[in-house]
Amino acid sequence: MRRLFVAENQFGIKIWAKDLAGPTCVDWYCPGCKGRVQLKKGKLIAAHFAHVALEDCQSFSEGETTEHLSGKLLLHQWATNSELEAYLPELKQRPDVLWGNIAFEFQCSSLSFERFLERTENYVSHRYYPWWLLGQQFHPKKRLSQFQKACCYYDQKLGVKLWLLSENDQEIRLCYQFQWHYQNGYNYEIQVFNYRRDSLRAILSNKIMDKQSNREWDIFAFQGVLKRKLCQREAKILAAQEKLYLQGGHLLHLPQWCYEDSRYFFFFEEELLYLRWLYLKSSTYNQWLFLIEKDYFNWFFPLIPKEKILQAIYFECRILASSKKIRESK
């Protein structure tokens, strides 16, 4: 069943479900599809409207849980002067909360990558900023799903970021400085913001203490893990080895600097080694890009510009390779 908090009468006057004491003689309609809705009010879930004939409405695409209902209401109360369930006819989309040009999307259930990409690109092309916040089901562990990766953002200071919402604790949580480790999977720092203490403007300002990573990264241990995965014939590792072989390289016999730690392992994991090897096979950035594009790879981060990350990787390769030459000349 689809639910909404706001409905309108025949004159377009809107009303909150929570403001109605009970059923009335007035007919209420969905602000998006204009189909009839009816009040639902009980002790276990928040008051809301439900479509009488859901098939008539194209502005809702996913079912809602109690977590989603209370979460978007929390976001609406947190964002002063925001609109709850504002229908955007030019997009044929309905963000959970609209705050100026910021479209809040609180995602608590599975969503295909294709549908996520469609919604995100639609917002951006119409000059809205999509702010995806994930519910309890998607709070990260040591592994990240394709959908979790798709919801990641990036900035130069805090690295890869992922926003979470805990409606039960009335908290927004920012996971940042995501990093991939060859043995331990993904790890990150976390900053917690509370509804009663922190304003949304302060949260979005990114004034967060940058923490120095003290994790262990041993290039020889990394090579050992790669050797084991090759022996076990893991599909992803064999694919990376085949690419390297065709370019005259080998996964276990690259220059030592290729195995050094990097925040960009997050995006490519072991395949970053292949990109570093291609750096050695090219003389310019454009030539390097050409070699990369010859071997098509998937980019699962629609909120992060691929070009920006590739430029950073190339610059890092130049620094690491130069440092090696300086050490060898001493």
UniProtKB/TrEMBL annotation:
Lineage: Bacteria, Bacillati, Bacillota, Bacilli, Lactobacillales
Domain of life of the organism encoding this protein: Bacteria
Every Competence protein CoiA nuclease-like domain range: 64-206
Naturally occurring in which organism (per UniProt): Enterococcus eurekensis
Protein name, per record: Competence protein CoiA
Domain Competence protein CoiA-like N-terminal: 27-59
